[in-house]
């Protein structure tokens, strides 16, 4: 079934007014992870997605061990009423086993990570113990088994420690190392090609002519893609003419899993791009009910639908031209799509968190707005206000902000003091 047919099956989807959620759901429903895997040395796997389940080959920790510095005792020997005097017959350090077995009335000094000597079952922390020559006085009130980490407490042998689909972050690197994994199987990196369209664009390194603007989108795109760990292919600035655009689309689609463009999808420009897209693939042109970022194209180029088909096709995200709209649409649609193609399951979520909006914001129901905000703690409460200028061309608003203020589709005006949801840039950008 064609992409357009699948899209129109979802009968309430109007390409002229698609909600952010509808667009996101449709995109997700179409994508499947890349199949190719590779084995990498552990450190190189940071930021990649596990391609296979990792099963714990042994218990973690492998043995019972002390969680604290203190004294290893037999709980049954302790008095419930007053202090118990025990003779210290030795010391056991982390990584050592205590030779011998403490007898009745005896205990062993134990360090964090050390194995409790035979017969002992409880560790009493040194801070509460009174030392008296070669004896110690243990106060009453100790719980049996306290301060001992049990073998297999983190992971039991044979249990899946990490499932395929898990994004490898520093915690996962450490966990994999704790299982002795020197190599892991991960999905291969995504190849993402991108270019900017527009006759007014000038690349950095070239003097600006009258009426030109520097192409900033390729730099934000590069940064956003690099953070996600994609292999990037920067195809530069492409003029608004059919021949150059067609060549750029063909080159990008042949080389990449995903093609991202900016500009050329707004009314007026879109007509001519639409014609081209119809020849090269299958692309849907949407007017999404969002601000910034209304026009957006999504589809596939290359492959069976293209004239020089070799079977390979690439997903296309045609983002708007305005610099802030590029970032907003990237984070609301492309980021998740890339993680999905990378095989991430679950997708790394960036939560929406409530904050008090300190100023009124004009907003009408019927579209989702992503205002750029500054979130700060004021008198013990998280408060947010929009940064000054919110124009979709004003990239400084993204740089000055530390969060998106997400004003939901059905939401009306915001009064000062209202709660709003924010999406913090840390973890997103
Ligand atoms: P468009 O979507 O192509 O109509 O572009 C909308 C606005 O964004 C215009 O003011 C463009 O000059 C600007 N713009 C488009 N592409 C870029 C880019 N790569 N870098 C900076 N500004 C851009
Ligand atoms: Mg343009």
Please supply descriptive tags for the structure shown above.
single chain, 429 residues, alpha/beta, Molybdenum Cofactor Biosythetic Enzyme, Chain A, Molybdopterin biosynthesis moea protein, domain 2, Molybdopterin biosynthesis moeA protein, domain 3, 4 domains, 6-stranded mixed beta sheet, 26 strands, 30% strand, elongated, binds adenosine monophosphate, binds magnesium ion
CATH class of the largest domain: Alpha Beta
Architecture per CATH nomenclature, i.e. the level-2 architecture of the largest domain:
3-Layer(aba) Sandwich
Bound molecules: adenosine monophosphate, magnesium ion
Q: How far is the first residue's CA from the last residue's CA?
A: 36 Å
- Describe the oligomeric state of these chains in a short phrase: single chain
Estimated share of beta-strand residues: 25-35%
What structural category do the secondary elements indicate?
alpha/beta
- CATH H-level homologous superfamily name of the largest domain: MoaB/Mog-like domain
Tally of structural domains: 4
* Strands side by side in the biggest sheet: 7-4-6-5-9-8
Average pLDDT, all residues:
94
Number of helices: 8
Helix share bin: 10-25%
Assign an overall shape.
Answer: elongated
